[in-house]
Amino acid sequence: MRRPQEFRGEEFYVLAYARLSSERNHFPGEVGPVPWNRINTYGQTYKLTALMHEWFVDLMMLVDRLYIERMDRERERKRRRKDRKAKREAKRKKNALGSPHGIGSRNRR
User: Fold this and answer.
1) Which residues make beta-bridge pairs with 106?
2) 75 closest CA partner among 27, 13, 34
3) Tens of pLDDT, residues 59-107
4) Where are the domains of the chain?
5) Helix residue ranges per DSSP H, the chain
6) Which secondary structure element, helix H or strand E, spans residue 30, and what is its range?
7) Is 61 exposed, middle or buried (0-12, 13-18, 19+ CB in 10 A)?
8) pLDDT of 12-44, one tens digit each?
9) pTM, full prediction
10) CA 21, CA 42: separation in Å to the nearest integer?
11) Is 109 exposed, middle or buried (0-12, 13-18, 19+ CB in 10 A)?
């Protein structure tokens, strides 16, 4: 993505994304995207030229997609960690009870 000639400073884009993130749709257990119309309106508010506006919207949507992918990976990592912990706990409980024939049956012969 080539940036237009009238490129604004990085601060403009960082601040824009931070502000737009508050407009994000949230779903139970996951992060939704910043709505396109919010990004579009933000660009219009700052009276960007048509080329700058198009570049701005594309950039914000790209950054948002990357953010969502990262949050999805983090959520999956936490889920796997929780599953591993549950398996270890189940195994620990099973070992604490002894054999499937009852408590203390290991010592009986």
Assistant:
1) none
2) 27
3) 999 999 999 999 999 999 998 998 888 888 888 888 877 655 555 555 5
4) 10-97
5) 10-21, 36-45, 50-97
6) strand 30-31
7) middle
8) 999 999 999 999 887 787 889 999 999 999 999
9) 0.69
10) 12
11) exposed
Residue 9 burial class via C-beta count within 10 angstroms: exposed 0-12, middle 13-18, buried 19 and up: exposed
Tokens describing residue 69: 């992918």
Q: How far out from the chain centre does Cα 49 lie?
A: 31
Amino acid letter, 94: K
Can you tell me which residue has the tokens 């994000």? 24
Cα(7)–Cα(58) distance, rounded to whole angstroms? Answer: 14
